[in-house]
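tokens incoming
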């Protein structure tokens, strides 16, 4: 009977991990499955609890460095940026007036919804802007303070 309780706990933790995506609960699920193994071998409840705690702790300490290494952004690790990280910091062209509520910009040939990073700024069509941050599918932009010049072909 003890093994079934540990298995149920392990499954609950594994399913909860699906919804959190932190890779933290899965380590306790591994501990619960190890305790279920100890219960199946006839270990007393105290030993099962110790097995759960030790295996969970070992899993956390063994997996944490690996998770931290993979959690680094590509800019932290020196790799080439891609996705949203590549867009942040790039230059864009205002297509439709951008203010705190709405706007459209062209970033590397793609049209994006945009909002002014500074709610007091109103950016006119044709202005160059800097992408400060991307939230969802909206680029938060700031008036580009560099000297005006010809935009790259991809931004026209």
């Amino acid at each position: 009977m003890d093994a079934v309780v540990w298995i149920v706990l392990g499954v609950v933790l594994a399913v909860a991990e699906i919804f959190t995506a932190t890779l933290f609960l899965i380590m306790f699920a591994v501990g619960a499955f190890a305790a279920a193994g100890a219960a199946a071998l006839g270990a007393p409840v105290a030993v099962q609890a110790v097995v759960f705690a030790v295996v969970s702790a070992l899993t956390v300490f063994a997996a944490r460095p690996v998770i931290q290494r993979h959690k680094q952004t590509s800019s932290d690790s020196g790799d080439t940026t891609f996705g949203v990280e590549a867009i942040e910091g790039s230059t864009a062209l205002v297509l439709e007036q951008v203010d705190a509520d709405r706007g459209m910009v062209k970033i590397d040939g793609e049209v994006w919804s945009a909002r002014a990073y500074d709610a007091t700024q109103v950016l006119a069509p044709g202005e160059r802007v800097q992408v400060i941050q991307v939230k969802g599918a909206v680029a938060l932009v700031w008036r580009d303070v560099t000297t005006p010049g010809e935009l790259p072909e991809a931004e026209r």
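note: The two ends are 69 Å apart (CA to CA).
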